[in-house]
Specification:
It is a single chain. It is built from four helices and four strands, in the order αββαββαα. A four-stranded antiparallel β-sheet has the order 1-2-4-3. β1 and β2 form a beta hairpin. α3 packs across α4. The longest helix has 21 residues. The chain is globular.
Length: 112
């Protein structure tokens, strides 16, 4: 499992490909990168997303370098995804980052 800071760096390489209320598809930037590093980070990111309250399902497609997340917008504000990925300092982004961090700690502690 990558460190939480590595997952935060990984988020900078994601962009929103499609977003409707309750469903978001994220794409990994297409710049050339080693497939091993994104694969490990993508698995860590998926493990964290799988433990987030308000996330119903996560589908990662490594070949397409995309991830589809079905979420409850009552738990995770719709605006939070774009703000967090764009580095916008907003209440919505802070909520999502806190949720991600708490889920990360849950996953890491479960593996100890």
């Amino acid at each position: 499992m990558p460190e939480f800071e590595e997952l935060r760096v990984f988020l900078r390489d994601l962009h929103i490909a499609h977003h409707i209320r309750g469903r978001i598809r994220l794409k990994l930037d297409t710049r050339p990168v080693s497939m091993d590093v994104p694969r490990a980070q993508a698995r860590g990111f998926q493990a964290v997303l799988d433990h987030i309250p308000g996330v119903a399902s996560v589908q990662v497609n490594l070949l397409a370098r995309s991830c589809t997340v079905h979420y409850d917008p009552k738990v995770i504000p719709e605006r939070a995804w774009g703000d967090l990925l764009d580095g916008v300092d907003s209440d919505a982004a802070a909520i999502l980052e806190r949720i991600l961090h708490d889920a990360y700690l849950e996953v890491v502690n479960a593996k100890l």
